[in-house]
Design goal:
13 helices; about 0% strand
Length: about 300
């Protein structure tokens, strides 16, 4: 369609056995007089592009709305893959360690202590160790469960904006603020690549109802610009990464907003990688250390009978 083909011509070129049924449905709907925007929005409603397309069609023609939806969906997926690839393995390892420690303290350790009772009467220190392992494991699992529940509540559409505003204003979790700022600039840069004016870009982003944080930030910035605030000052929001303001000040003075947004995204990506790697390394270190402690405890218990026998 960017090359000037109509919807029907584009479908004739792209049609194959996998999409033939879908294209036939679109042709039938278009033939019956339905608007192309309504048909395409319905077809893509259950895809990754649907969360963007329905809102974009309110302010953009079909060709630009489709292109922008593809760009934003691809960029968002890349950011998600980076987060998942860095954090899934260490978090899974830590969770397995906690569950294993709890099972060890509840099932294995009592049996080992019962066996050890035949060789010595002084088991007070080992009982304290068992209670300590159980307490720490249950506490950490409780904290993880509570954190997951809190995250699920805070990420609901009704609460996500309030939760993020509170976190960003109190400067908790800077990684979260940087991640949201990077997504905001990513989407803003995609609009700029489509040659949309700043005001229209903000209107487009304000239609992203399935992405409440981006929608909120776009509306805040649009209100600031309408009140006469300069572009770089409008970026100086308490809900955005402070370093973004410095980038935008340079952009205004050099008339290179697109290049500065790309530079900020590159810097943000590298900074996020470093922080995720540091966090991942910390979680892995704690997990390995926990496994080592459990192995040492088992070894000491198993060696206790031999130590008692060597005393005779």
């Amino acid at each position: 369609m960017r090359s000037g083909f109509s919807i029907r011509e584009a479908m004739d070129i792209l049609e194959d056995e996998h999409n033939r049924a879908c294209f036939e449905h679109i042709r039938m709907r278009l033939g019956s007089g339905d608007r192309a925007e309504d048909v395409i929005s319905e077809v893509f409603s259950k895809t990754a592009y649907g969360s963007y397309l329905s809102g974009f069609l309110k302010v953009l023609p079909l060709k630009k709305a489709l292109g922008l939806s593809v760009r934003m969906s691809s960029g968002n997926e890349e950011m998600k893959k980076q987060l998942v690839s860095e954090m899934v393995y260490p978090l899974a390892m830590f969770l397995i360690l906690l569950c294993g420690s709890l099972l060890f303290s509840e099932l294995c350790l009592p049996a080992l202590l019962s066996m050890l009772g035949g060789f010595t009467d002084d088991l007070s220190s080992w009982k304290v160790t068992a209670i300590l392992i159980r307490t720490v494991s249950m506490s950490m699992l409780g904290m993880l469960a509570g954190g997951m529940i809190l995250m699920l509540v805070c990420t609901r559409r009704r609460w996500i904006c309030r939760a993020y505003c509170l976190i960003s204003e109190k400067h908790f979790l800077p990684l979260l603020s940087e991640s949201v700022s990077a997504r905001f600039i990513l989407f803003f840069a995609q609009c700029a690549e489509m040659d949309l004016p700043t005001r229209q870009s903000l209107e487009v982003m304000a239609q992203m109802e399935d992405h409440p944080l981006i929608c909120m930030l776009a509306r805040e910035m649009d209100e600031a610009l309408r009140s006469g605030t300069a572009f770089d000052e409008a970026m100086h929001s308490r809900h955005l990464d402070p370093s973004l303001y410095r980038f935008m000040r340079i952009a205004v003075n050099t008339d290179g907003a697109k290049e500065m947004m790309k530079s900020y995204l590159a810097m943000s990506e590298e900074r996020m990688k470093r922080r995720l790697k540091r966090l991942s390394r910390l979680i892995r270190t704690v997990s390995y250390a926990g496994c080592g402690v459990l192995l040492i405890i088992v070894y000491q218990i198993l060696m206790m009978p031999m130590n008692v026998l060597t005393q005779f």
